[in-house]
Structure prediction request, 80 residues.
Amino acid sequence: MMKFYTALEDKEIERLAKASLWLYPFIDPSGMKIEVRDAVVTITGCDLNPDDVQRATALLADFTCVRQVRDCTWRSGQAA
Prediction:
């Protein structure tokens, strides 16, 4: 399915993304850091629940204003 992008400023996308993650009942966004640049959302954080990260990535990828979601999370002991 093709997405038609809605133009929003990066700060507005970031605000909407953070609010949506806290409102979604099956995601615990504690420890997730959300950054947006050129409509690309980057999720960072350490030792997050992988299921929460996967759900967050899928949720944010469905936003019409988001071009891409990057998962840059890591786990303790994981090679850099």
